[in-house]
Predict the 3D structure of the following.
Amino acid sequence: MTELPEVEVTKIELVPHIVGNTINKIIIRDHRLRWPINYHALKKLENKKVISLSRRGKYIFINSEAGTAMIHLGMSGSLSVLDRNTIPEKHDHFDIQLENQKIVRFNDPRRFGCFEWAGKNPENHKLISHLGLEPLEKEFTGDYLYQVSRNRTTAVKALIMNASIVVGVGNIYANESLFMSGIHPKRMAKNIAKNRYISLSKSIKKILKKSIKDGGTTLRDFSFTYQEEKIGYFKQKLFTYDRENKKCKQCDGTIKRIVQLGRSTFYCINCQH
């Protein structure tokens, strides 16, 4: 599953290739993504200039003169900027054809991604309107986490992965942020003091910013490509994620793995409490 840093890096890499260009045509080869692609709605992009790209959670917004379309990479999606005459391959579901003779091509073997028309007010779209704060915005603070955690009996890891509270803190970064803050992932959210939430919010921001700077973590199915050049996603020096039974890098303890809400959780038995 692609996480916020990977989506942000994809957006940044796309900007010089698409912003300021006019979209000549939308080509749909297979409409069967997570939700069927509605070409009738998306064709509003055709012959319109792309004003900007932005991101909300894990959605990339293509903001045009006609309105906004949004792309979600799902579990295995990738975007490539290619020459227009590049022959499509298996799982190449749609192209955004640009006036500069390039195309933005979407490949998604598992078909959990999406390509949706969001109109003039994308924040009101049903997939967006329920989303919580952006973790890198100034409004996301320890005070905020403390307030929303009151009376919540859920585990703290589930709290920070709840998209209606904060968007884009996926499994990798939730594990790493909790380790950096010294908080046990199973600790009940309402039982954590404000000073620890302040530490946690700072850890989330720090880890996400570092990952964006480094290009994201290395995820098996994720890539951004421009012709033959592949933009690499350099794996961070992760402290806990996917390190079951290995020695903690911070102490002599061992990294343990448990399952929470169907997702693997990794933590140090000594450093986190």
User: Anything to note?
Assistant: Confidence is low (pLDDT under 50) at residues 218-222, 227-234. DSSP finds six helices and twelve strands in the chain. The two ends are 28 Å apart (CA to CA).
